[in-house]
Amino acid sequence: MALDKNGIAKRIAQEVKDGYYVNLGIGIPTLVANFVRNDIEVEFQSENGILGMGPFPYEGEEDADLINAGKQTITALPGASFFDSAMSFGMIRGKHVDLTILGAMEVAQNGDIANWKIPGKMVKGMGGAMDLVASAENIIVAMMHTNRKGESKLLPHCTLPLTGVGCVKKVVTDLAVMDLVPEGFLLREYAPGVSIEEIQKKTAGNIIISADVNVMQLEA
After folding, report:
1. Can you give the pTM of this predicted structure?
2. 219 included as an active-site residue
3. What is the CATH number of the domain that holds 135?
């Protein structure tokens, strides 16, 4: 059975280590803050100028003045700080972020990512994504394995305009966990109830099966 968006976020939360500074992109990545272990200290950063984001607020407890880069209401943990975009992007460009978690429309087997534009559709611009992919040394992509037409989003080459080149290190989808290696997508884990054959069928890029491939463990 494929994971839902919360399942993807729960699996990615296992990649967050004690002491990390983590940037969460728009979409599925914003859910990761809800699933980080309580026994570690993590600072979540949002490019609009917050360090110390917490999980989403409960209904009725929202503060309209506290939002993330996707304009969703958030919480701030004790000790959180607020600053302008110049300082926020100084953190990003200065490589002070340990882990960047992004959504994507396509990922290529060489680590290219396309996550900002579909030709013919109006967009406001690339935003902070270009800074994140250019500066981050540890990028994990959170995405669905296929698009709404059932077509693979893990490709030999991206067909959409690129955001970054050769920058993605790991992809976590509703079906699998894959590392990006020189040969392509290295399958490390598969979702409970999902077969390796299904993942192979739905991956257009070159896929390699790890010798120790195993089922995802979603519970701590």
Report:
1. 0.92
2. no
3. 3.40.1080.10
